[in-house]
Amino acid sequence: MNRSTTNRRLLSGTASLAVAPIFGIAAGPTANAADMPLKAPPPPHVAAPIWAGWYVGLSAGGAWESNYWQSTDDPPGVTGTHNGSAFIGGGQIGYNWQQGNFVYGLEGDISGLTKSSGTYTSIPGDVTYGSHISWMSTIRGRLGITVGDGSTLLYGTGGMAIARITAKSEGGAFGYPVNSYSHTKVGWAAGGGVEHMFTPHWTAGLEGLFADFGSSTRGSNIDGKCCATIRDRVFIGRAKLNYKF
């Protein structure tokens, strides 16, 4: 073997020794990467429910009327109360604005009431007092906060209330005149509720309201004799179903 051949073999061996570690290093990480466990994909992003916008709906529940009477003439000084329950049902329309977890808006509603049960007799068998709210409407502001994932709203509400009230006192055996009147009164209403959005367009909730229509005095429809004073108040508990646009 001549020197030239020997030199070529030495160079070839040296090159092999130099290249082998490089390929070994390159192959090592490749194999290790294949053995590493894959990370789970991130969960999909779920947008928070949007409460802003117009809505319309229906409501139904119970109304508990509490009225205080005082006769000032025929007969004078006789007082009494009338407490009764009624069914209330109607509809509402409103608009919400939303800033983060805070929701605020305006709502108007109108409802009819069945004739309330219950009467009060201040003199047994004689003077009977009673009144009835045939319909009422409210225009209220609402302010609330969403909880949990944003699909449940807790809110307070308050504003103006309007009602049509029919009231009467019957004289009985002594022939006292019948004090009877029917008119529209303006008062205030306040309360609160909880509402849940179970689809992007439908919500359901429960609401409680107290309305006070103040006191008024009306004369008798017999010979113009006077008078009876009544204060009208009502508490409402109802369920609501709304469609949000």
Question: What does the model show?
Answer:
Helices cover 13% and strands 60% of the residues. It has one helix and nine strands. The protein has one helix at residues 3-35, and strands spanning 53-71, 79-99, 102-113, 120-121, 128-147, 152-170, 179-199, 202-218, 228-244. It has an eight-stranded antiparallel beta barrel. Strand 1 (53-71) and strand 2 (79-99) form a beta hairpin. It starts with a helix and ends with a strand. 27% of the residues are buried.
How many structural domains in the coordinates? 2
Number of strands: 9
* CA distance, first residue to last residue: 96 Å
- Average residue pLDDT: 79
Do you know the CATH topology of the largest domain? Porin
What's the SSE blueprint?
Layout: H1 3-35, E1 53-71, E2 79-99, E3 102-113, E4 120-121, E5 128-147, E6 152-170, E7 179-199, E8 202-218, E9 228-244
Antiparallel strand pairs: 1-2, 1-9, 2-3, 3-5, 4-5, 5-6, 6-7, 7-8, 8-9
List keywords for this structure.
245 residues, mainly beta, 2 domains, 13% helix, elongated
What is shown here, in short?
This protein is mainly beta and 245 residues long.
